[in-house]
Amino acid sequence: MSVQIDVPFTPAPSFRSYLILVTAFGMLIPTFFFAFMVFAITDGMGGALAVMAGIFVMLAFAGGIWAYLYYGTVHYLLTPTEMTWGRGVLWRQTGIVPYNRITNVDIIQGPVMRIFGISNLRIQTAGYSANQLAEIKLQGINDPEPLRAVIMDFVRSGHPVAAVTGADVAATPASGPSQAGQAADAAMLVELREIGVVLKRIEEKMQ
Questions:
Q1: Residues 81 and 148 in one domain
Q2: Domain YdbS-like PH spans what residues (predicted)?
């Protein structure tokens, strides 16, 4: 995918179909639970199967509607200093992750996701990586390598490399010591010299 800075982007269209399919099949678990309860009460396999089929159709339909709506709420944004995300149908969630907190970006692709040609990017940060947990996931990315390259380049150097990834950002000069960093080094050097003078005076008095 072509990554553009300060331009929101959404998951691949195939992610919607993936969500609908996975959500629908995920309804099998509560369906079997309700069917088992009916079978235990009525002691009849036919009634349990009929209830199971009805519940599955109802839950699969509701799950498919939710997945369809959920896809329309997911969006991501890369800026020169941080990445933001938002999603949620009933309960809206948004977040901001500065690049200086990111420690690693992993690409995750399961067998079903491979069929749909999509992957997830798992973003690990300093506060989460110790437990091998992801603070956020960029879901439904059809070409994850360029996106990961842009994010990791921000993490390493503070500006992306647009030549390979297609990121639409202005080139920045090679990083060097900032003026603030130089001032801090100079102040530290002065303090060390003063400490040296004090230690020399103490040594002279002890002799």
A1: yes
A2: 73-149
